[in-house]
Specification:
Among the domains are: 176 residues, Orthogonal Bundle (Transferase(Phosphotransferase), domain 1), CATH 1.10.510; 162 residues, Immunoglobulin-like (Sandwich). It is elongated and about 85 Å long. The protein contains ten helices and 24 strands. The chain is an alpha+beta fold.
């Protein structure tokens, strides 16, 4: 929450504006006061998008959805103006932190608190679904931890049973890491997609980490479709329930009532000491009128006697805080000491930065610094943690140990185009300079062939006069033109998008140890696969597909390897398949 600015209006409709609550995807959200003195949240659509029919349709649908859904788990609609600019809607104001803010500030929640929150949110989804509505954007930012229980907010892309999706052409629906595979791949948004988002949301609550890592949205979406959710360190029973919610097949996910049954709660969420401390600590909003500076904007008539809006100062910067003990433990202790604090009026308010990356203050094990000379990596273990998976095959000169494979933890936009092998070009420069590297890719049966029909022979070596002093691990990635459905080993039937992956990859090899001068010769598809490791350390291997399964321009990338998920591109080439 922050003070109104001089450019902010004094009133919207009959609502007197008091402060800024934050900014959403379509506009600004204000704290307001109704004529009768009720606190409301007022969302005002931005002027620059009022001329976009799709944005207006989405905004109107949000208002109609909130109006239709009358649930204890959603903020009720108070008023709205949908006929002419400025377009706005006002809902009940729910005091409390968003789940993302609470976890970011106080750390991951213990398993017992997560189970109660899991059950409460499942009950909330069941209530929303009973109205024939799917939320479609459930995530930690859209869950407010209210004093009476959690509230679901932001129905901007909610979908009724008789409606079609309102997303811009080419834009992915929902939020990366919380959007179900069937939504990303086929645009299917039904109740099971909300269950997937619920599982991802609870994974964040239980770990404090983004459920599918951080980085480019396409990379996160790729991991949500093909990878494993991050529940490392989570109590086994809770982790199993989270995994059940995010399985790839929508029909295999548990319904909300089954989630509630498996949570087996035996007491109210609001009585949980951790939940109570999160809703009751830090802020003093609305309970101490007149004690803090007014946020009333210019030209606004004086507020009634006895009520003065308050500004809630921001918390201590993350860099200045020690990482040792989750702050909710301190909050619980403080609540017990003062007695009644957990049910008092001190409320933590959502701040204005809810759009930031969820992994910003609680780094995921899949977030690493970039390799030297390379672009930022979107994945990899931190320097202080060993990489998961098989044992190391040797030093890598980087933060992570080199395994017998690499994981597709990043997105690759490298695309080769050409009419003959060796005669095309790639659209992006390499991430890291490789002045001593020599590589080629040709048809194995006929190296002079202009196109590839069978297997591919790939050679990579360091020049004899190279000056590399330490290990120089390299892996080769071969990527088809399109994203591949692992169940059919062919491009997805309904979505033909270019391949965002790093490709099917080979085992990393230290080129400084190839003493015969011939480097390494690999054969595609024989020596290539995609390999993932789940949270239990179990490897899942997807063999490389035949080139005939996806005709077009294939891309070959050579990666400098420093760890299981830490690598950068050195060189790019490709070959055409007819």
């Amino acid at each position: 929450m922050e003070a109104l600015r001089h450019t902010d209006p004094a009133q919207i409709g009959a609502q007197t504006l008091l402060a800024r609550l934050g900014a959403g995807g379509m506009g600004q959200v204000y704290l307001g006061r109704s004529p009768g003195g009720r606190l409301v949240a007022v969302k005002v659509i931005r002027e620059e998008i009022t001329g976009h029919p799709e944005a207006l349709a989405r905004f109107r649908r949000e208002a109609e959805t909130v109006r239709a859904v009358r649930s204890a788990y959603t903020a009720n609609l108070i008023d709205a103006s949908l006929a002419a600019p400025p377009y706005w809607l006002a809902t009940e104001y729910v005091a409390g932190p968003t789940l993302s803010h609470a976890v970011r500030e106080f750390g991951a929640l213990p398993a017992a608190s997560c189970r109660k929150l899991f059950a409460a949110l499942a009950e909330g989804l069941a209530s929303v679904h009973a109205y024939g509505v799917t939320h479609r954007d459930l995530k930690p930012q859209n869950v407010i931890l209210g004093a009476q229980g959690p509230q679901l907010i932001d129905f901007g892309i909610a979908k009724g049973v008789s409606e079609t999706a309102l997303t811009q052409t080419g834009a992915a629906p929902g939020t990366p890491g919380y959007t179900a595979p069937e939504v990303l791949l086929r645009g299917e948004a039904a109740a099971p997609a909300d269950v997937f988002a619920l599982g991802a949301t609870l994974a964040y609550a239980a770990t404090g980490r983004a459920p599918y890592g951080t980085g480019e949205p396409t990379a996160v979406n790729f991991r949500a479709v093909h990878g494993e959710i991050d529940v490392a360190g989570v109590e086994p029973g809770l982790a199993a329930l989270i995994r059940a919610c995010v399985v790839a097949e929508p029909a295999a996910r548990p319904a909300p009532d089954e989630i509630i049954r498996r949570c087996a709660v035996d007491s109210a969420l609001v009585d949980d000491p951790v939940y109570a401390s999160l809703t009751a600590t830090a802020g003093a909003a609305g309970q101490l009128p007149g004690m803090l500076p007014s946020t009333i904007g210019p030209g606004l008539p004086p507020a009634p006697s006895g009520y003065v809006p308050t500004y809630v100062p921001g918390g201590q910067p993350a860099a200045a805080r020690g990482p040792a003990v989750p702050r909710w433990t301190v909050a619980v202790a403080a609540g017990l000491l003062v007695g009644g604090l957990a049910t008092g009026g001190y409320l933590l308010l959502p701040n204005q930065g809810e759009a930031r990356n969820e992994g910003a203050k609680a780094p995921s094990p899949s977030a690493t610094p970039s390799p030297a000379g390379g672009q930022p990596s979107t994945g990899g273990p931190p320097a202080s943690s060993p990489a998961p998976g098989p044992a190391s095959s040797g030093p890598a000169g980087g933060s992570g140990a080199v395994s017998d494979h690499i994981e597709p933890s990043t997105v690759s936009r490298d695309l080769w185009t050409g009419t003959a092998t060796g005669e095309g070009s790639c659209n992006l420069p390499p991430e890291e300079r490789a002045q001593y590297l020599v590589a080629s890719a040709v048809e194995a049966a006929d190296p002079n062939a202009k196109t590839v029909a069978g297997k591919v022979r790939i050679r990579v070596m360091l020049k004899p006069y190279h000056q590399e002093k330490g290990p120089y691990f390299v892996s080769v990635g071969v990527k088809p033109p399109h994203d591949i459905d692992p169940t059919t080993q062919r491009p997805y039937e309904n979505v033909r998008d270019y391949n965002h992956s790093i490709g099917y990859t080979s085992k990393p090899v230290d080129l400084t140890r190839t003493t015969d001068g011939g480097g390494v010769i690999l054969t595609y598809p024989d020596d290539f696969a995609t390999q993932l490791v789940d949270n239990d350390g179990n490897a899942k291997r997807f063999p490389a597909i035949p080139v005939a399964n996806d005709p077009g321009n294939w891309t070959v990338l050579f990666y400098r390897i420093r760890g299981l998920r830490e690598y950068s591109s050195l060189y790019c080439t490709g070959f055409p398949v007819k």
